[in-house]
């Protein structure tokens, strides 16, 4: 959630930003440091009693640090001022609410044309949860929109917590100590440091907020039927068959057990805490179920049920009401209208989907706005030997969005590559900023659906996706380092090259193998992608010719159809040791005279210590393994055609080049 960009929804949401009058009415949801939801909104006249209660709830020490005196009457007078001030005077006041209770207030009073004085009060009970920081970020955002360039504050030197809020915020500030009083001036503009600090705070809060959803210790499937074929039943069976490591419950008022899993009449009857609820009930029953989950203390829910915003205006209103219900209980939602979620970590083993595909464990994190697309990618990845760390079917994105998952996967240790299938961007500016930050350490691959008018119509009908002009998407991706994939197959291919393998340090490609025609096709594909296929030096060419009997040693290197695994191994070693390539493509055509297994082993030995990417094309062996496994357990991707391999390497080169830019 990001308050500073005026999103009306939690987390880094892909949701539309709301500024000006709309935002002033609705307020903004944000994540506290502990992952709970905080609602920030403008002060209203009817807040007087709540603010008085806050003034009398906090300690004497807090009153003294705020008002520089032990005077609750001064605090009450300030409350009158906050709730009755004329907004035309430029005064702004915001309150923070947790579970419907006012727990903090921030305000500023104009001083000069572009300057104002700010003040804060936060309930003692919520200190340490980052609520003061959230109020500061939002107050600065409102001030900046209204032309205020500098916010000032006088703070007692002994008020360490408030001083830390200012100095850790990332906003550019200067301060001066005078007779025990710190006079502080803060710029409201976003500096690079400001955005970095905000992103890191969001990441930490997002991690805590999403952990019960994506790494639960207990799961309840609400709407799990006794008969096979129903969505709830199949999700429950997937959790059982996938050997989920936590506690598993079914909620069904008409059964005591579903298979071997105990069933209870309602979520309130389930013994012990429930981290994740998977909801598979008719759409009319979903709001009541979400409310019951909130009252039961459930932390997150995946709503599989369809029949919401994709049905039009009435469905959109029901979906908005659903979000409000969840917000009241700090309950995070995935969906509705989605396939479910997967976490392959051995200590979790969560398959809360109704898909037939069980993905391999691995390092690609995947989110898809379409459940069918998610199934297709999971299936193709498994066939290609590419494992998944986590998978999230986003559906209508009522709450958790692609932006939230970017933050979550940024530092997720099992994830090397992030793949997204999106049909809409609700907050493109936020997506671009996050993708740029995440992309410095992990590649972000995106297939954007809805490029055509027909595609946009289809997206609107099945996930209520709002269209974004394709030219704007291209510009957004180029600026943020996102690798745009044309197809799902291309996403999987690029992820195979980028997952767990070194990046190319340039654009020089070496091609070597026993099939001259494959080398020609690879070189032509490289040329079309502006990938260099340089001629080897005389020294390297001579070594290849003398030691391997290569038919052609200039690059591509043609070892001839009779080349043995040992010959191929030596040729690859020569090229890797030459320093004349940034990536190597090994092309192998299987024949009755050769042995695919021995050839794979030879390639593995040669590439074991490589510091540049090595990929393989295996032709004429339909049952060959899709990867060459190295001694350390990592693998080289094997592609069926040289053009496919070159295209995937091209993405890796493009990403590597972007990372080196200042």
From TrEMBL:
InterPro entries: Acyl_CoA_acyltransferase, CoA-bd, GNAT_dom, NAD(P)-bd_dom_sf, Succ_CoA_lig_flav_dom, Succinyl-CoA_synth-like. It comes from the Bacteria. SUPFAM superfamilies: Acyl-CoA N-acyltransferases (Nat) (SSF55729), NAD(P)-binding Rossmann-fold domains (SSF51735), Succinyl-CoA synthetase domains (SSF52210). Residues 38-196 form the N-acetyltransferase domain. Pfam families: Acetyltransf_1, CoA_binding_2, Succ_CoA_lig. PANTHER family: COA BINDING DOMAIN CONTAINING PROTEIN, PEPTIDYL-LYSINE N-ACETYLTRANSFERASE PATZ. This is Acyl-CoA synthetase (NDP forming).
